[in-house]
Structure formats: C-alpha cells, structure tokens
Design goal:
Blueprint lengths: L7 E3 L14 H6 L1 E9 L12 E13 L2 E6 L1 H4 L2 E8 L6 E9 L4 E6 L22 E6 L8 E14 L7 E7 L11 E4 L2 E10 L8 E5 H11 L12 E5 L3 H6 L9 E6 L14 E5 L2 E2 L5 E4 L2 E4 L1 H5 L6 E8 L2 E8 L19 E4 L2 E5 L2 H7 L4 H8 L14 E6 L14 E6 L2 E2 L3 H9 L4 E6 L6 E4 H14 L6 E2 L3
Antiparallel strand pairs: 1-12, 2-3, 2-5, 3-4, 4-7, 5-6, 6-7, 8-9, 8-11, 9-10, 10-13, 11-12, 12-13, 14-15, 15-16, 16-17, 16-20, 18-19, 20-21, 22-23, 22-29, 23-24, 24-25, 25-26, 25-27, 27-28
C-alpha cells in the first residue's frame, strides 16, 4: 500500500468478469506486478503552494477490460500520484504507467501502460465468485520486508459491509480473511483455485487485531468495471436515507405490523437525494425490488444474507429501486429513481484535486471539508458543529458549501481582525454566501467598501476598496503567492 497506518492499513486487489478457466500458478505470477509511485499531497494551509512528496509501493495485476489489457490496483495506491512505474517479477525494467480510471469511493483503479510490450508473457487473470466461509485463499503482493513477490495464505472468515477507509465515508461489501495483508499488498489479487476472488485493500495493525485483513469482493469490482466501460466513472448511487430496526414488539404493534420480524422504518430522508419526495420519514419498508426486508435491515440475495443497501450498490445512475412499504398503516408501492449520487460528502477524504480558495486583502477563504479540517484542526465550536452535523441536520440546504475565513496573511490592511479567524462567512456586501464562487463574485464587484459578515460576531469585517488594490501586489510578493484564487478542483 501507499502509506503506513498505525491502525487500519489500506490494501486492495481487483477483479473483472468471471471467465471460464483458472489461470495456472506459473502464468498467474507473471501477471502480478509491483507498482512504485511518487505522490504529492495538497497543502491546505498554503493552498497555492505544492505539498510535500513521498513514495510508496503497492501491487496490481493484469486484467482484460473494454479497452484491452490493463493493470488493476487500489485507488489509494495511485491517488495524488505524480509518477507511476510498474515492474514484473524477474523483469528488471520499469514501465511507465498512467491512471486511466479511478473510483475513490470503492478504492479501485485501472492503469494504462505506455509500452505495449509490457504485456508480453502476461495473461489476464480470471475471476471467480464469492468464496465460501472457511475456504482457503492466497494473497499475492509486495509487502514490506523484501523486494520479491510475497504469498500469504489464510481462510475466509466473514462476508459483511465494512467502511472503506480510503474515502472514509463509503461502506461496501467486504470479505475478511485471516491471511496476512500488510502495506505493499494493496492492489494485489486474492486467489482461490487459480481465480481472483478479491482485491487486498485494508487490514488492522497488530496492536488492534490479529490476523484480520480485508479484500474487495468480485461484485464490487464487477460494478466498477461495468461503470468504466462507458468511458468514465460515475460513482456509487445511494438512497440517501437512514433507517432504524423494528425489532421491538410493542413498536411493531403500534405501527400495525405483524410479529414476523420484517420491516425497517425510515428515520430520515436527505433533501436533494434520490429518495427526496418519494420516501418519507416514518415509512416502514417491507420489500426492496421484491426482496423481503428483515427487521434488522438484511435481505437474502444470491444465496447470501446481506444488508439492504447491497441491492442499491449494484445499480447505476438512471436505474430504479422498487419498494413495498407501509405509510400510515396503509400498504403501498413506490419507485425511487437513482438520478444522482448524494453530493454533500463534507467528511470524505478527497484525492487528485487541488485545494480551492480565494485570497483577498490577505484574507484566505476556503470551503470546509475533511482535508481542510484535518489540516487546521479548528477549535471554533460553530465550525465543529457544521462539520459534525452538516448532513444529519441538513445544513447543506442553506450552505451548499461552508466557507471559512481560515487564516490571514498579516498586512496593514487586515490588522485587528484576528477574532474573525476560523469564522463562517455569512454575507459579503449584503449577498448571502452559499459557495466559494459567491465569495469570488462578491469581492470582484466594484464597491467603495467590502463589508464581510461572519456568523456569531457582533461586528463585520470592513475593507476599504482604495486600500485593497495596493495591498494585493504587496501581499502576493511578500508571501510568494502564485495565484489569488482557485475555484475549480
């Protein structure tokens, strides 16, 4: 994997379609590759400046895609990369690679190799299905401790929904194994009887749990490969609802439910999500696409007992989800069209994007997000509230972006304004600020004064226009600012 983690490690592997024959072991080893990368992290405290660089090692394997032969690996192996090279076992040559497709929400990526000769002697690995509990698997990769390929063995111990730590907010189907998965295994194949059954991608360090590693299973990989076959990756769809279990007998009787342990209640419906206007708070969901929903929110799918969300996980933008539900004790059927992925992922890790900002009069305005939050660690309670409850309290309705006055580059124009640092910008010259673009537009309009109101403060920030222009050049030179704003990712 790309980085070292003290708690959870990230490592993963990729699978394509289930094909007929298993790949012989000798041929398979030729198709597992070592990936060396150089990354550059963004600098959120000085967003116009490049961040520090680092290097790492991961694994990948050859697959067949709609575009021909490619290398599959984890998104976290190649995220924020500036240079990638791959090498094969017993081949000293380094081959230059580029990221062709990446899905940060499912931690998968596909690499294109510049030289066609790279694939000489390799065979695209074939894919199996979901392995049985207690069945044996082998993990291939290049973990710490040596330069040559490593193989570790273990058994399948659990199939479950788990958080994918790369994004920090997405949970998908995951397979747990007792095989050792360490930094450097990320992106390598997990094989059973010569077929890929998972992609190694994360695990616990020894001080947290012993012999617990995770792989991305075939259904997740197949969805990724089908998605990119259209030429781009469109993200996972979701219902944008929350539910709670209906296992309490008294509650079930009050809702008019029979005592058959089926049905879950909708506790919230996110505005601007796919279910908005279709599902309602208090609805009791009984069936999803014809599958009965148990009172613990599980359904039976393809011979497995999985969470209800797995039904939606396998769908794409434009697909429909059919529900049978109870509303006010009346049974009815509704259909949710998955027309968009929920856009307000303020707590998600982001990659392959530059920090967005506006610098004006030495005042630095930035949107609140996970990477910003980690960089600044704001102590302001209002900022913490907006970050923690942004989705649950639907704060995004009035604040599609939460704009923070993150810092100030000291200059005579902005003296005595320290109390406003880490404040949430509310208005500029009477215009409500909902996005970073609003900040830019308000500050580019000609005005004698720029009056900036910050939530929770008794007085506004006031900058005089005649003083701003000479200060701009002074600040840019003094602090080596290359660009005053970046509105796009």
């Amino acid at each position: 994997m790309k980085r070292s983690f003290s708690g959870i490690l990230i490592i993963c592997l990729v699978l394509a379609q289930s094909l007929a024959a298993a790949t012989p072991a000798t041929e398979m080893k030729k198709s597992v590759v070592r990936i060396t990368m150089t990354e550059q992290e963004p600098n959120y405290k000085v967003p116009w400046a490049p961040g520090s660089t680092a290097s790492g090692v991961g694994a990948g394997f050859v697959i067949e895609t709609h575009n021909g032969q490619r290398v599959m690996t984890n998104a976290h192996v190649v995220s924020n990369s500036r240079f990638l090279s791959v090498s094969k076992e017993n081949d000293p040559k380094q081959y230059i690679a580029h990221v062709e497709f990446v899905g940060h929400d499912c931690d998968l990526a596909v690499l294109k190799i510049d030289e066609a000769g790279f694939f000489k002697g390799t065979v695209p690995l074939q894919f199996g299905g979901l392995p049985e509990i207690e069945s044996a698997v082998s993990v291939y990769g290049y973990p710490i401790g040596g330069e040559r390929m490593s193989v570790t063995n273990g058994v399948i111990s659990r199939i479950d929904f788990q958080l994918y730590t790369h994004s920090g907010v997405d949970a998908h189907l995951t397979i747990q194994t007792s095989a050792a998965i360490n930094p450097g295994n990320s992106g390598g194949p997990v094989l059973q009887e010569g077929k890929v059954v998972g992609v190694a991608f994360q695990g616990y360090s020894g001080d947290v749990a012993q012999n617990v590693g995770y792989m991305i299973p075939v259904p997740v990989v197949q969805r990724f490969l089908k998605d990119i076959s259209h030429g781009s990756y469109g993200r996972y769809m979701d219902l944008s609802i929350s539910t709670f279990k209906l296992q309490n007998p008294a509650m079930r009787r009050a809702l008019g439910l029979v005592d058959d342990d089926h049905g879950v209640m909708v506790s919230s419906v996110a505005k601007e999500g796919s279910s908005d206007g279709v599902l309602k708070q208090g609805d009791v969901l009984l069936e999803i696409d014809g599958h009965s929903i148990a009172s613990d929110s599980f359904v039976d799918l393809d011979g497995e007992h999985v969470q209800m969300e797995e039904i939606v996980e396998r769908k794409f933008k434009g697909d429909e989800v059919r529900f049978k539900l109870l509303r006010n004790k009346q049974q009815m059927e509704v259909t949710v069209k998955l027309d968009k992925a929920f856009p307000y992922l303020i707590q998600a890790n982001t990659y392959d994007v530059s920090p967005r900002y506006v610098l004006f009069g030495g005042l630095l305005f930035q949107p609140l997000g996970h990477d910003f939050y980690e960089a600044f660690q704001p102590e302001d309670l209002r900022v913490r509230f907006f970050y923690d409850f942004y989705v649950s309290d639907q704060l995004y309705v009035d604040h599609p972006e939460v704009i923070i006055l993150s810092t100030m580059l000291p200059d005579p124009i902005n003296t005595y304004l320290g109390e406003f640092r880490n404040g949430i910008v509310d208005e500029i010259n009477g215009v409500k600020i909902r996005t970073l673009k609003d900040v830019s537009e308000a500050l580019h309009k000609t005005s004698q004064y720029y009056v900036i109101k910050v939530l929770g403060t008794g007085r506004p920030i006031v900058l005089e226009s005649s003083a701003v222009e000479p200060a701009r050049a002074r600040i840019l030179q003094r602090y080596n600012v290359s660009k005053e704003e970046n509105l796009s990712e």
